[in-house]
């Protein structure tokens, strides 16, 4: 009987490990579409506002920056919409998220007094800012008009 319990325990360990691996890999895959952006990353990948005075986007693909907070209800409702859009446009647009509570310097730079705030950044041209929760259809139209035209 003791041997049977050892086999059962070994099986359970393998099952738990398999579940944990699938959860971890699933999380990594989901985050491939939406990238979390720190202030340092923003300066390296988007625009270094401490060094440059004239806006010049550094990226080769347009991007959207979602400024949000974990406690913000509209931000939580916007998150799955942004994830869907990121999956649909991952070859054309880079999707970033910035937590305004953790990246206060970026929140200050964008004057993010109201969230959610989306910043649409075309490869050429100035960023366009949109505040508040919007339906997916409206965001899709903005992506087509501002970023992919």
Please characterize this protein's 3D structure.
The chain has 149 residues and is of the alpha/beta class. The chain is 48% helix and 16% strand. It has 5 helices and 5 strands. It has helices spanning 2-31, 39-45, 73-89, 104-109, 136-147; strands at 34-36, 63-68, 94-99, 117-121, 128-131. It has a 5-stranded mixed beta sheet with strand order 1-3-2-4-5. The relative contact order is 0.15.
Class per helix and strand makeup: alpha/beta
Helix-strand pattern, N to C? HEHEHEHEEH
CATH C-level class of the largest domain is Alpha Beta
User: Could you state the oligomeric state of the chains shown?
Assistant: single chain
Strand order of the largest sheet: 1-3-2-4-5
Nearest-angstrom radius of gyration?
20 Å
Give the biggest beta sheet: 5 strands, mixed
CATH architecture of the largest domain: 3-Layer(aba) Sandwich
Shape field: elongated
Low-pLDDT runs of 5+ residues are: 22-31
Number of strands: 5
- The domain count comes to 2
Q: What is the arithmetic mean of pLDDT?
A: 87
Number of helices: 5
Q: How far is the first residue's CA from the last residue's CA?
A: 70 Å
Helix content: 40-55%
**The named CATH superfamily of the largest domain:** Glutaredoxin
